[in-house]
Amino acid sequence: MLEYGTLLTALLLRFMKSAVAAGVTVSPVNMSERASLGIRPGDTVRVHQKIQDKGKTRLQVFEGIVLARKHGDEPGATFTVRKVASGVGVEKIFPLYSPLIDKLEIVKRAKVRRAKLYYIREKVAREVKRQMRRMTMVLMSTESEAEAAAKAAAAAEAEALAAAKLAEEAAAVKAAEEARVAAEAAEKEAAEAAKVEAAAVPEQAEATPETTEATTEQTPAAEEKKD
Q1: Which domain holds residue 181?
Q2: Mean pLDDT within 111-137
Q3: How many structural domains does the chain have?
Q4: Is residue 227 assigned to a domain?
Q5: Cα 206 from Cα 210, distance rounded (Å)
């Protein structure tokens, strides 16, 4: 089956070659102009491609380096273009005589020693890995209005909590001070009361002998009356 497909492709290419040689139009584009452009590996090309989008046709530019050129200037000639978009390698294979290509431009031309530049894929991967070894994770950004508002609200809430905590501490200190003053006043009153009681005890002791003497004087008089 594979041999049959290869044979069919070879016959088709031979037919297209003969058609071109006989002057038969294979593509509506100017084939001689594109063939004379001489696209080769190492060239940086800019391809203006027609894109059908919702019934409208727009042009999309694909710029990159040519990795390979196949089938020469035959009607089935193709070229592979590679570019890096957002850090991701993208490759496209364009038919050289495709009517969907509006314009071809060669931006830069480099001298290379290979007919196929597929090694660039691995080279780019190695370079990316080498660069990633030198990378450090950072997080730097500007604040949005919502983030600034949330930050201000959080700061206000923190200030309110701190003020409430300070007020509670001040109230606790004031209550402790009042309790200490009340305790000192109570101790002072108790000391004064004890002092007054201590002063009243000797007066009672002095009054007791006088009462005893009076009782002794009255007792002999009573005995005389009995006699």
Answers
A1: 144-199
A2: 82
A3: 2
A4: no
A5: 8
